[in-house]
Amino acid sequence: MPAQLGSCAGIAVPGRAPPPSRGRHRPYPHPVTTTAPLLPALTARVRAQAHARSAACPCGAATLADRPDATVVRHGEVVAKAHAPGTDADALAHRLAFTARLPGVLLPPLAPAPAELHGRLVTCWPYGTPVDPDDPDAAPWEAAGALLARLHRTPAPATLPPMRGPAKAAAALARLRRSAPRHPDAAPVLRAWAALPAWARGEDAMPDTGTPCHGDFHLGQLVRHPTAGGPWLLIDVDDLGRGVPAWDLARPAAWYACGLLPPDEWTRFLAAYRAAGGPAVPPAGDPWPALDVPARALTAQTAARALAKAVAAGRPLDEVERCLVDACARMPSVAPGGPA
Amino acid sequence: MHCPKCHAPMHTYNRNGVQIEQCSGCRGIFLDYGELESLTRLESQWAQPAPPPPAAPQAYPAAPAPAWGAPHGGHGHHGHNRHKSFGHMLFSS
Fold it and tell me: Matching InterPro entries, A to Z (chain B) (predicted)?
């Protein structure tokens, strides 16, 4: 059930580990422990939290994810997440503190600070019901647009780190360069990426540093809490931070532009965002001057990720993945718009 | 005036600009000369076909899309049956 996991990117890039954290937290040792000892310890942690009043566990545990960048386990109503090795402890603490202040928008953590377990930072969360991956037609596009608008309208504290969207996209492109530099479909993706402004490639500061952004929005980042009919909330704080709010709209925008997301779903999402006063795009008229650069970046990121996975699996691109590469190939004929 | 049928007092009302008298007892209605024609005329105007409604909007108004987007305004591979690969993409970073 990957939907509860939040981010599934976080591709590790050798030589581009996050900068060492300051303050009382020490950088985590590298290479970190494998998940083998972590998983039972994390399971014990979440079990202890979920069933604090009883030695018996009535619910049965579930490992929701065990990936290199995140291990997520659930016991009852509690979910524990071990964040990616090398996660900046201070940055995560600031992201967590901001999340705790927006309980109607972001799922609030159970504890205000991350704990440490087997060299990994661990946070605990209430369990929320995700969007059903088998029924994406039931996706709550209106709620998603309204939640992002409310997030973007919140003043960003200066302590909030930068949003990690461009850095994550850069990591996906770096992975493509390593894994399939000479693949014929890599060239248009790399060209489209190279034409983007430096901020969108994670190589310069973003032109907006005052707006809190989710940084990795997709349908897996929404849960209902409380689980029975509760409101939709955003989850996954790993990429949360100050940045260009159009980035949070840009993944659905890219899907729509590539002909993958039906126009009505895109329109519902955008209309709800505008109705809730979201500042990323003008309240009316053509939103694309604001969306163009982030949507190109997300298209290139998604294409790079798809191509690297296809090459690793020794298979050709499927027709959806082909749409992304084709869109990248068309980009050079139109100069990027929006903030330079 | 009083009702010619039950002799109860009649009260005057205005219906669409036409003065009519209604009996407070038997609820019968008395129309002066020309008032029936006035009501008939009003009725025929009411029954006339309404002006044609504006052209039915498209199922979804054409949303703007970037020039590098898929041809035909973004009507690419979506459809009634969503592609499995895209279904997964909706939930992925």
Answer: TF_Znf
